Amino acid sequence: MKRILSTPFLLLIVVCCFAQKSKKNDVEGIKPVGIIKNLTDSALLDVVQRQTFRYFWDFGHPVSGLARERSNESFDYGNEVVTTGGSGFGIMALIVADSRKWISHEQAVDRMVKIVNFLFKANSFHGAFPHWLNGETGKVIPFGRKDDGGDIVESAYLFQGLLCARQYFTADNPKEQRIRNVINWMWGEMEWDWYTRDGRDALYWHWSPNNGWAMNFPIHGFNECLITYVLAASANRYPVSADVYHRGWAQSDFFKNGKTFYNIKLPLGFDYGGPLFFSQYSFLGLNPKGLKDQYADYWEQNKNHTLINHAYCVDNPKKFKGYGENCWGLTASDNFEGYNAHSPTNDLGVITPTAALSAFPYTPEYSMKALRHFYYDLGDKIWGEYGFVDAFSEQHNWYAKSYLAIDQGPIVVMIENYRTGLLWKLFMGCPEIQNGLKKLDFTSPALAKK
C-alpha cells in the first residue's frame, strides 16, 4: 500500500477490523424493504436513507443507545463495543429520522435522553471520549495497546452530532431541557487546550492516563480532521488559539497541493485527494458552501476531490471489473483482505457505496447514477437490512456482509444535506461555531447573517 495518509489514520486501518453482532434493541423497529421497482429519484433517496438509518435505530446498543462499531463479529471484541465518532454520525441520522417522521418525536427524544445520560457518566479524559466505549458500562475499551484514553478526533465527530442535537431539541419540557443541559455540560468540560500537549502549536490526537502522550500524533492537515480544529477554536472554556490552527493544522508537507488531476485543480491535500471521507466526515455539520479561509474554498476543495475520484474510476487505469460512470467511489472500508483506505493512489478494485452516496451534495448527478446502479443492478448482492453493505469488488467477486457505523451514518446525513441542508443549518447555527470560524478567519454565508 502506498503511503498516502497521516500516521494516525494508518493506525486506524491496522486495528479497524473488529466488532460485534448481538441482540437487537428493544424498540419499535423500522421494517426493512427489498428492491422496489421504478422509484422516482426522490422516492429512492427516501428508501435508502430510511433503511440505512436502521443501523442506528434497530441495531443501536440497547443500554447506551450508541452506535455499534460494525455489524459483524471479528477479532472477538465482544458484543458491547460502541464507537464514539460513529455515534456522532448516528445522532445526526436520528435527527433526520425525526424530521422525516420515520420515528415519532417522542421516540427520538427518548433515545437522545438515553444517549446523553449514558455519555455523561462514561469514561472521559480531560473531557475527551475514547475511540471505543463499552456500551453497557461506559468504560473505555482500548483501540490499541496504548490507545486507551482520549481521542479528540472521534470526540469531535461526537460533539458535531451532539451540538446539532442541542440545536434541534429545543422544546421547553424536562426531557429536551435535559438533552440540552447535558450536552452543554459535556461540551463545556472538553479541554481542547489540554490536547495541545503543554501549549504546542498543534492538537495531539491522543492522551492516556496510562501512557501519556506516548502515541505522539500531532494532527496536521489536510485530511478528515478539520472539524477537530474548528471545535477546539470554538470552545467557550478551554479553547485553542488561532495560531494552533495556522501553525499546526495548516503546516505540513501534505497540506497545500494546487496541482491538477484529470484537468481538475485540487487546492489541498494528497495527490488525487486521498479517500473520499476526507471531504465528508468534517462536513456532515460544517457547511462547505461558501466556506473559505486563506487556504482554500472548501466547496471547491470537496467538489473537486470528488470529481477527481469519479474521473479516476471512469478512467479505470488498472482495468478493474465493474468500474465506470455508474460504479465509482473509493474510500476507507472493508475489503477482501480486511480493511484499507482506498483511493486513486491505493486502488485495490474495491468500491465502497458510502463514497459516492455521501458525495450527493457535491456531485448529485454522478451520485444518483451510482445509487441507481447499486440499487437496481447490484441490489441482489449489496442491498440488505441496513442499506448497502460496506463495500464490494466485482474484480474479486467479493461482496461484504458487514455494515460500519462510520460509513452508514454519512449516507443518511449527507443525502439529507443535499436535500434540505438540515444538519448544516443546525451546526452552522451554533453561536460557538460561528465565533470559532470567525476566530480562524473563515468566511461563510452563515456568518454573514449574524
Task: Describe the overall structure.
With 450 residues, the protein is mostly helical. Helices cover 41% and strands 7% of the residues. The protein contains 16 helices and 12 strands. The protein has helices at 7-15, 41-57, 84-99, 105-121, 152-168, 174-188, 226-234, 242-249, 298-315, 353-357, 364-377, 379-382, 405-419, 422-428, 431-439, 445-448; strands at 81-83, 132-134, 150-151, 206-207, 260-261, 264-265, 332-335, 338-341, 383-384, 387-388, 392-393, 398-399. The protein is globular. The model is unreliable at 1-26 (pLDDT under 50).
Offer a quick outline of the entry.
The chain has 450 residues and is mainly alpha-helical.
Task: List the topology elements.
Elements: H1 7-15, H2 41-57, E1 81-83, H3 84-99, H4 105-121, E2 132-134, E3 150-151, H5 152-168, H6 174-188, E4 206-207, H7 226-234, H8 242-249, E5 260-261, E6 264-265, H9 298-315, E7 332-335, E8 338-341, H10 353-357, H11 364-377, H12 379-382, E9 383-384, E10 387-388, E11 392-393, E12 398-399, H13 405-419, H14 422-428, H15 431-439, H16 445-448
Antiparallel strand pairs: 1-2, 3-4, 5-6, 7-8, 9-10, 11-12
Helix pairs in contact: 2-3, 2-13, 3-4, 3-5, 3-13, 4-6, 5-6, 7-8, 7-15
